[in-house]
UniProtKB/TrEMBL annotation:
Superkingdom of origin: Bacteria
Name assigned to this protein: Extracellular solute-binding protein
Keywords in alphabetical order: Cell membrane, Lipoprotein, Membrane, Palmitate, Signal
Gene3D superfamilies in alphabetical order: Periplasmic binding protein-like II
Tagged with keyword Signal: yes
InterPro entries named among the record's database cross-references: Bact_solute-bd_prot1, SBP
SUPFAM superfamilies xref list: Periplasmic binding protein-like II
């Protein structure tokens, strides 16, 4: 569970899910519930304890905190472990300043939600945070709630200094969309390999699948962000068919780091994409696709047969946009990712666990135990789960035919706004909980659920910190991205691949980056 001595700085993991939430009606008669496990906890803690919480993990920082008598979730937490919970929710963009001000004044909250591993390590180095290692064995259910990679992300200098904050969401934003109506018209099957996918894209481009007699359809479109990075815009998903990806994708195999962006298999991935470009199955507008909304417009217009987009584009609101913009609602379906030549079948890699809960070093043993007990209840109590993940029973969710039914999507705008504060407590929701999202189209739920089996493990390269002495780091990354684009577009022939690797070594000191990775992986216990 723990990493050995290492100092890491990692980008904050962002889960932008605040828009998926809450609402209500009259809550008169609704009382906070407590499971038998929470009742036993309250018996164990006979003396009430005050706990201050700095909650920047809320999914809606703008939502006001209600009075205690109206705050059902707060009452549940307080009753579960016999505490008086004083929660502070900083406004968006002000969290770091607010927390630093509190720390400087010596008024450190007992429980802090931190959004990045960099913050977790920094505040521990400053003597702000407690080492939780001696206590966690008392909380086996809490330990089981999160995977090893999530706990690894909260380890630092051989100690566990945080508890994972909330699950990141995977298996939805990188869905493989294909025009099933075009497949039917051309009498083709859903592709399952890169070669089959190429033949489908070629047919979508050349055989007039929309039947308008014009040469105006394409097999695929992807893009890259304004910085020239290929990640998240579609081409990276094609690379995963070959088990590789752009910077900074690093695996550990056979006790060595494997840099996937310069692995020999990357050359094969680039050759495949170049083959697509040469056959003109890629919409030439790909060079201008620098934002997700531009790719969505291509999806709505319906002139491309295969794309990597968010499965929520199957929801009614997006379907309506397709009708308004493209004149029809195409039969888009989400299919499994193609299985590559080396057995890779990846829709995306699990997001890095950047967010976490930390406890003030000022907290004594009893307070640390009480806080960890609250977190264990919050994240693992099965009876409490829907009250935190979905909202208030009878309003946001209910029991229908013996099963929990999330009703958030059925609520009016006014009802949702009335109880926005339940967003402060949704952290326990699981990243693979389709009911939480309250999808309106069953096909969205199906796609989301099916994609889970194709989410790969988090890459260990996410744990690396930049070496401050590596002054060529930014230029090296830029050169790698630019070179990959040139190779796949044909501006630079793949016969120059060895020259590319040589330039990385001679001009951009790739060896320094490799040495840094080896050193930090050894410190982390990932290699011997």
């Amino acid at each position: 569970m723990q990493l050995k001595k290492v100092s890491f700085t990692v980008l904050a993991a962002i889960v932008g899910l605040g828009a998926l939430l809450s609402a209500c009606t009259d809550k008169e008669g609704i009382k906070p519930g407590a499971s038998s496990s929470s009742q036993s906890e309250s018996n164990k803690f006979a003396t009430k304890m005050k706990i201050t919480m700095f909650n920047q993990g809320t999914f809606n920082a703008a939502a006001p905190i209600p009075p205690r008598e109206e705050d059902i979730q707060r009452q549940m937490l307080e009753k579960a472990v016999n505490i008086d919970l004083d929660m502070m929710v900083p406004q968006a963009g002000q969290a770091t300043t607010k927390l630093n001000t509190l720390i400087a004044g010596g008024d450190i909250p007992d429980l802090l939600f931190l959004k990045s591993r960099a913050d977790l390590a920094q505040y521990y180095d400053q003597g702000v945070l407690a080492d939780l290692t001696p206590y966690l064995d008392q909380f086996p259910e809490l330990q089981k709630r999160f995977g090893k990679d999530s706990w690894d992300a909260t380890s630092y200098l051989g100690k566990t200094i945080g508890v994972p904050g909330y699950d990141n969401v995977n298996g939805i934003s990188r869905s493989f969309f294909i025009r099933n109506d075009w497949l039917k018209k051309l009498n083709m099957k859903v592709p399952t390999t890169p070669d089959e996918l190429f033949e489908v894209m070629k047919a979508f481009t050349e055989k007039d699948p929309d039947g308008n007699g014009k040469n105006d359809t394409y097999g695929f479109i992807g893009g890259m962000n304004k910085e020239g990075n290929l990640q998240t815009y579609g081409f990276d998903s094609l690379m995963w068919m070959f088990g590789v990806n752009p910077p900074s994708a690093i695996e550990v195999k056979d006790n060595k780091p494997v840099f996937l962006f310069i692995d020999p298999k990357m050359k094969e991935a680039l050759a495949y994409i170049n083959k697509m470009m040469t056959a003109k199955v890629v919409d030439p507008d790909w060079v201008t696709m620098t934002t997700p909304d531009l790719l969505d417009q291509k999806l709505y217009k319906g002139k491309v047969g295969f794309m990597i987009r968010d499965a929520r584009r199957l929801e009614p609101d997006y379907q309506q946009k397709m009708k308004e913009i493209g004149g029809e609602i195409p039969e888009w379906i989400v299919i499994p990712p193609m299985k590559g030549p080396y057995g890779d079948q990846i829709v995306e890699r699990k997001s890095f666990q950047g967010n976490s809960w930390a406890i003030s070093k000022k907290a004594d043993k009893d307070k640390i135990i009480r806080i960890l007990s609250m977190l264990e209840y919050l994240f693992t109590d099965k009876e409490a789960y829907p009250n935190f993940a979905y909202g208030i029973k009878g309003i946001h969710w209910d029991i229908v035919d013996g099963k929990i039914k999330n009703k958030t999507s059925e609520l009016s705008k006014e009802m949702k706004e009335k109880y926005l504060w339940v967003d402060h407590y949704r952290m326990p929701r699981r990243g693979d909980d389709a009911e939480y999202f309250s999808f309106q189209n069953p096909k969205t739920t199906e796609a989301f659920t099916n994609n889970q089996q194709y989410v790969g493990l988090t890459l260990p390269g996410n744990l690396l910190t930049a070496d401050p002495s590596d002054t060529l780091a930014a230029d090296r990354t830029r050169f790698i991205n630019e070179s990959l684009v040139k190779f796949m577009s044909g501006k630079d022939p793949l016969t120059n691949w060895d020259n590319f690797l040589k330039t990385l070594d001679t001009k951009f000191d790739m060896q320094k980056y490799k040495d840094t990775a080896v050193k930090q992986f050894k410190e982390a216990g990932l290699i011997k």
